[in-house]
Amino acid sequence: DTGVSQDPRHKITKRGQNVTFRCDPISEHNRLYWYRQTLGQGPEFLTYFQNEAQLEKSRLLSDRFSAERPKGSFSTLEIQRTEQGDSAMYLCASRGQGEVRETQYFGPGTRLLVL
Amino acid sequence: AQSVTQLDSHVSVSEGTPVLLRCNYSSSYSPSLFWYVQHPNKGLQLLLKYTSAATLVKGINGFEAEFKKSETSFHLTKPSAHMSDAAEYFCVVSDLNAAASKLTFGTGTRLQVTL
Prior knowledge:
The complex is a heterodimer of chains A (115) and B (115).
Chain A: E1 5-7, E2 10-13, E3 19-24, E4 31-37, E5 44-50, E6 53-57, E7 65-68, E8 75-79, E9 88-95, E10 105-106, E11 110-114
Parallel strand pairs in A: 2-11
Antiparallel strand pairs in A: 1-3, 3-8, 4-5, 4-9, 5-6, 7-8, 9-10, 9-11
Chain B: E1 3-6, E2 10-14, E3 19-21, E4 23-26, E5 31-38, E6 44-50, E7 56-58, E8 64-68, E9 73-78, E10 87-95, E11 103-105, E12 109-114
Parallel strand pairs in B: 2-12
Antiparallel strand pairs in B: 1-4, 3-9, 5-6, 5-10, 7-8, 8-9, 10-11, 10-12
């Protein structure tokens, strides 16, 4: 257990529905990341927060995706009008401030299946 | 831009024999390099990281990796495989000059350990 938690662990939804995932980082970590991992691939970067500010977004993050970190603590990732191609594992990671070489600690992920 | 190439998608070894998982990287800057392991239905766990100190890095569970700048390689080794080492292994690079320090993952190497 890394100290990063994600909820839910699994989500099955029908195409067109909206889904929201939550990530709780390690409490003293001010940097938070979202990644997406599809079957047989390595995780790919989606977006990055420093405190409550969303500082970087990947081109993978289409307009249907939105992420927030309202108080600089937990974060949510919402997918609107889900598509079958959104089926993947969504991973959250957190990192402390200071030296950039500090490790990112990953949560267990939320596995999404869109039917 | 940064990238990593994991040269083998699947490696099979017998228990008690050495493990070699190969990784080559590409980075415009001085990179940080990591190996993460992912066991089935578990989160990503950091095995070891290179951060421009010693080129031979020791990690958890007896794993080591050597940073070779001339060969742009960061291969992962273990002298003697154990059944519990069976998992997916990811070589990862991070660009220290970018504010986000996002991680770029390879496609993974699945390690199988047989009796």
